[in-house]
Design goal:
264 residues; Rossmann fold
Length: 264
């Protein structure tokens, strides 16, 4: 399989073109996150999921609890798996959904995320919210403040937040762009990892994402072979693409922040 990945300023983006062994410069978020992670005193490798139905769906992330993504990982400067363990043995909380739900907006997510941080004490949090916030065609004025409160709550307890842009939504391009500007701005401000799900969808399917990576409802990613991270499948299964991008982000956080000695 031919793949590569590129680390941008404060952003982790996964690309699908390239070959050979790769060596990427350390991302700008790595040292700030190592500093923040020093406060961590929670559940090792518990990865919390904060979001709406696109996060609540069992098509997202749960395949990592029973399948092995290792064969799809490119040759780069990081190990392919934790020392002596499979990823499904290392990642905790794969099936938990108490901080995500259908129809959720950021104001519904905020208290749930606070409770999950207190009860689960996660080491990493995957955060994607906004698709329902922009249903009316405009981003609510309170969106940025509430999302920022979730991010800072994670950092305050040494949990590494990985934020994601929201995917394209039919007939909502301007509102989606507005939400993603806020998400990217917060990622830069707090020096945290950002998965640009939106950009990757457009890179792979610039003219026909609607109906291929986004389902016929124009909102949710498409399903199918959600545990298959081959180049071909990542162009047709939106949920596999989202899991893959977030998994590669978690992998990098693991080796650069949580267990950097394993990467040497």
């Amino acid at each position: 399989m031919l793949r590569s990945f590129e680390i941008c300023v404060g952003v982790l983006m996964i690309g699908l073109v390239g070959a050979g062994s790769l060596r990427a410069a350390e991302p700008t978020w790595a040292e700030p996150m190592r500093q923040a992670h020093r406060k961590f005193n929670g559940t090792p490798m518990y990865v919390a999921k904060f979001g709406d139905s696109i996060t609540y769906s069992r098509a997202f992330w749960t395949p990592l609890g029973w399948s092995d993504p290792t064969p799809y990982i490119p040759n780069d400067d990081l190990p392919k798996s934790p020392r002596g363990r499979l990823w499904k043995q290392a990642i905790q909380g794969v099936n938990d959904t108490d901080a995500c739900g259908s129809g959720w907006t950021v104001d519904r997510l905020l208290p749930a995320a606070m409770l999950a941080l207190k009860s689960h004490k996660p080491e990493v949090a995957l955060i994607m919210i906004g698709t329902n916030d922009i249903s009316g065609g405009k981003l609510p004025d309170t969106y940025a403040d509430q999302l920022e409160r979730i991010i800072t709550a994670c950092l305050d307890q040494g949990c590494v937040p990985i934020v994601s842009t929201i995917p394209p939504r039919r007939d909502r391009a301007e509102a989606v762009a507005e939400a993603n500007r806020v998400i990217k701005s917060l990622a830069r401000r707090y020096h945290i990892p950002l998965v640009d799900f939106h950009a990757e969808i457009l890179r792979l399917r610039s003219d026909d994402w609607d109906g291929t990576l986004i389902s016929e409802d124009g909102v949710h990613p498409t399903g199918g072979k959600t545990q298959d991270y081959s180049d071909e499948n990542l162009r047709s299964c939106g949920y596999a693409l989202r899991t893959w991008l977030n998994f590669m982000a978690v992998r990098e956080v693991y080796f650069r922040v949580i267990a950097p000695k394993e990467a040497k």
